[in-house]
From TrEMBL:
<protein>
    <submittedName>
        <fullName>SnoaL-like protein</fullName>
    </submittedName>
</protein>
<dbReference type="InterPro" id="IPR032710">
    <property type="entry name" value="NTF2-like_dom_sf"/>
</dbReference>
<feature type="domain" description="SnoaL-like">
    <location>
        <begin position="11"/>
        <end position="122"/>
    </location>
</feature>
<dbReference type="InterPro" id="IPR037401">
    <property type="entry name" value="SnoaL-like"/>
</dbReference>
<dbReference type="Pfam" id="PF12680">
    <property type="entry name" value="SnoaL_2"/>
</dbReference>
Length: 150
């Protein structure tokens, strides 16, 4: 039995939360997969990123983050696409650029994940980051899925 688009989305989020990155994620995607990132605080111009660059970015992110968590609030499906409203929380592991070790980041997401041939073909994402205050958090409220808040 084939998986639903929502199941593919949740599998990707679980893999990222568990620390999978780079080649460990390739099996989740079609060879021509891409991410369409809409303009946001980290990437004001937005970007279209092909699979190889997505995998490289995930490896870089894994080195920057101590942990990351997705809290999915709603998912609806329309044909081959899962549409999710979620909150992403993470903690910076090492000082890098404007970020400091221990700093918390929060983004509110709308993600459109399209499945083709049993894998993710496209992720269109709207990442609304909370302001970075540089003092250990992005200014957001505690997330019940955050292990540091337990």
């Amino acid at each position: 039995m084939s998986r639903t688009p929502a199941e593919h989305l949740h599998e990707l989020h679980r893999a990222l939360e568990s620390g999978d990155h780079g080649e460990q994620l390739r099996h989740l995607f079609t060879p021509d997969a891409q991410t369409l990132e809409r303009p946001n605080l980290l990437n004001p111009r937005g970007a279209t990123t092909p699979l190889e660059a997505m995998l490289a970015a995930s490896a870089a992110g894994a080195g920057l983050l101590a942990w990351q968590r997705y809290r999915t609030w709603d998912v609806i499906e329309s044909g081959p696409t899962a549409i999710a409203r979620a909150t992403w929380n993470a903690e910076i592991a090492v000082d890098a650029g404007p970020f400091r070790a221990g700093q918390r980041l929060t983004a509110h997401l709308a993600q459109f994940v399209t499945i083709r041939d049993g894998a993710i073909a496209q992720i269109e994402t709207y990442d609304c980051y909370e302001p970075f205050d540089g003092e250990g958090s992005s200014g957001g409220s505690a997330d019940p899925a955050d292990p540091a808040d337990a």
